[in-house]
Design brief:
single chain, alpha+beta, Alpha-Beta Plaits, Arc Repressor Mutant, subunit A, 2 domains, 9 helices, 63% helix, globular
Length: 191
């Protein structure tokens, strides 16, 4: 392969994962641009042996090099969602299906069908699951109230967020927060 190339990486969802990929590339003396969630641009042509070495190095940390176009596209969908929910304070100005279509240059129906067939869940359910994890995290940090959390995660109302949280976790956000405080008290009593 000639010139710069992009590598697509499965299960790359955190800053720790970025560090693993960076270390693998550094070890091989490769030059690269920015490392995003799920992808990295390497500035030189890679031999099949180098690709194998990168693949083996990152596999130790549970990451995987992708080469199938559909697998790459699914990973991109997941990474855009994770990035938007967990790492970005910017709220998309269009609805999420349009946002995803624009970002990936594909029809949303095609993306949604591909995702459902490959992952056994819908894009919508994947988004909701990540939003609920983010809500839990924000409730545990205790810096934002429920109104602020619902605004931050683009919910139309606190009621909508609360209903979705209860449907997914079986608990109300308030009860979830109280459980955390209760666990802290128990832990203190054990000291």
């Amino acid at each position: 392969m000639n010139g710069p190339m992009k590598l697509y990486i499965k299960y790359m969802v955190s800053i720790r994962c970025k560090m693993v990929v960076k270390a693998a590339l550094d070890q091989l003396g490769l030059h690269y641009g920015t490392i995003e969630l799920g992808e990295v641009e390497v500035r030189e042509a890679l031999t099949p042996e180098q690709l194998d070495q990168i693949g083996a190095a990152i596999l130790k940390s549970g990451l995987e090099l992708l080469d199938d176009k559909k697998a790459v596209l699914i990973e991109k969908i997941k990474n855009i969602i994770v990035e938007m929910i967990h790492y970005s304070d910017e709220k998309p100005t269009v609805n999420f299906s349009e946002f995803l279509s624009e970002k990936l240059g594909n029809n949303y129906t095609y993306l949604a069908n591909l995702f459902s067939i490959s992952c056994g869940t819908t894009i919508e359910h994947f988004i909701i699951a990540h939003k609920m994890e983010k809500v839990k995290e924000l409730l545990l940090y205790d810096e934002l109230n429920l109104t602020e959390i619902s605004y931050k995660l683009n919910y139309s109302s606190v009621a909508h967020l609360s209903n979705q949280f209860k449907r997914v976790t079986g608990l109300t956000p308030t009860f979830f927060k109280q459980m955390k405080q209760f666990r802290k008290r128990i832990a203190l009593e054990d000291v």
